[in-house]
Amino acid sequence: MLKTVFDPEIPVNVMDLGMIYKIDVVDSSHPDGEDIFDVNIDMTFTAPNCPAADFILEDINQKLTSIHGVHSVDVAVVFEPEWNKDMMSEEAKLDLGFM
């Protein structure tokens, strides 16, 4: 689902841009047997003052909570390590002309 979240200023999704550093899925299932999960994400932006930050965070939250069983999504924005072009997938580098 994260591959459907795009930085509106760059035509590449946040996964291929290398902006997602960590994804933890915690099983918070209830005794009644319903599968419930909490998703914790560490991510960064291509620049600390990214003007699209709020849009991207909201898009992540909406798309992940639309998945059946996802109860909550917590996104921690971190800047260590600092994002750089080497974090992009090979496909993203090709799409953006870096290869």
Descriptive labels:
single chain, 99 residues, three-stranded mixed beta sheet, 2 helices, 19% helix
Can you summarize this structure?
The chain is α+β, with helices and mostly antiparallel strands and 99 residues long. The protein has one domain (2-27, 35-82): GMP Synthetase, Chain A, domain 3, CATH 3.30.300.
From the 3D structure, determine the CATH topology.
Answer: GMP Synthetase, Chain A, domain 3
**Binned strand content:** 15-25%
The share of residues in helices is 10-25%
Largest sheet: 3 strands, mixed
Mean pLDDT: 93
Structural class per helix/strand content? Answer: alpha+beta
Number of strands: 3
CATH superfamily: Fe-S cluster assembly (FSCA)
Count the DSSP helices. 2
* CATH C-level category: Alpha Beta
Shape: elongated
> Residue ranges: pLDDT <50 for 5 or more in a row?
none
Strand order of the largest sheet: 1-2-3
Give Rg in angstroms: 15 Å
CATH architecture: 2-Layer Sandwich
- Give the total of domains: 1
Give an overview in words:
The protein has helices spanning 53-65, 90-95, and strands at residues 20-27, 37-43, 70-77. The protein is of the alpha+beta class. The protein has one domain (2-27, 35-82): GMP Synthetase, Chain A, domain 3 (2-Layer Sandwich). It is elongated and about 50 Å long. The mean pLDDT is 93.
